[in-house]
Amino acid sequence: MHYRQRSVLFAAPGLAIGAVAVGAAGGLTLSDFERPEMLIASLFVGVIIGMAVAELLSMTRRQAWRIRNRSRWEKYSTGASIVAAPWLATSGPKPPKLLDAADQLRIVMSSDFTIQPLLNKSEARVFKELARIVIRCNPDWHVMAQVSLGEILRSKDAEAYSCINSKRVDLLLVDGNCQPRHAIEYQGGAHYQNAAAARDAVKKEAMRRAGIGYNEVVAGKTTPSELRRLVEKLVDKLDVNQP
């Protein structure tokens, strides 16, 4: 709207210029402008000239403003001081790059590694006591620690398998044929922080559907005698008559 007003204002003096131009080209006099077609022609030429003058002055002002604010304009044009506002679309995080074996080897060779204990001290005590009781009940059975569910469970549903693939059980009882039979989760003092209970529910349901037992040993509550009775109930008795 502002541009239109400026164009009309600059067109006013252009009317006179247009009239003079038309008269000079055709040898016309002032009396000729009393004719409607000549008046329309002069108005049209005046509007065109006025708009051209307005655009020229606008470009001149913009150029002068850029010269006066050159340093700030260059900073804005490079985007150095522009901060993405909440209403501006921002690009999301880029997906991690898939590394091939060569890239993985290069990264590993440039990094340092240290030993990470498989079990903490409390878990290790339960593991040793559990292993001792299991061997006494049936030497063919074994206790495994920190077993990945992706290694002992299978599912044709890829989405369901992805839900349990990276989860682990603290302790796993396997029989003489290395078949998973019972999982034992050690619940320490800080075990139920954050979403630990929800993760345990996922593991428990997946193993229930596969036919693997799920049991819990609670720190400070489960006594050695209770652990012994639990193992005696879970482990198959050794058949003394078997050759």
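Next protein, fold it too.
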Amino acid sequence: MPRYAMVIDLRKCVGCDACTVACRTEWDVPLGHSRTWVNHTGVEGQFPDLISSPFVAQCNHCDSPSCIPPCPTGATFQLDNGIVKVDPKLCIGCGFCVEACPYDARYINPVTKKVDKCDFCEDRLEKGLQPACVVTCTANAKFFGDLEDKNSVVYQKVFGEGAWRMENENAAIGPNVYYLGKEKQLELVRQKFGPRKPRFATPAKFWSTILRPFIFFAVGATFIGQAIAFFNQVRKGEDPFND
């Protein structure tokens, strides 16, 4: 069974956003949202010792995803190959998983009202194709493959070149998007864009978002059902009573 991962070489990335555009086109991502996006650290340091870096972000398909436990319907799940998926048929758009992701890699689609995010272009993988963002990278800075395959490019870059995971004291859950770069560059990226602490739903939010609407719906449906039964009985009239 493969274990998929991606490596992004920040030394080669030019911050052109070709990956963002390709992803938006491939998956019809609505404006204002992204499955993958490019940030910039800005220039840091004192002349002539200056440093800056782009940073490409997306779902990390973590070893221990913090987005799965809070999902009340099981819509968020992980395949054996490591890809974290969202089942739109089960998703109710509560947003609990969005808050739980320390990388802010999820969003609620304003059209479908369902959660969406990167899935490593699983549909393309099933056709033997690479993810759209990888094949359109103008600088050849994105690499994708199987970490279980010692001959794969990602295996060589992770275990041979020491590609680095975006983790800190807030979240260390085994992200499977790795980064290559100069030491100062990677530290600057970690400082600027490192993961936040996962935010999990409180009991009050769970009540207001899930339980209360469900209870109101159930009570309303019961009332409507009883009302329909009553009026049907009135329309038909009482059955004659036989001694």
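About the second fold: The mean pLDDT is 90.
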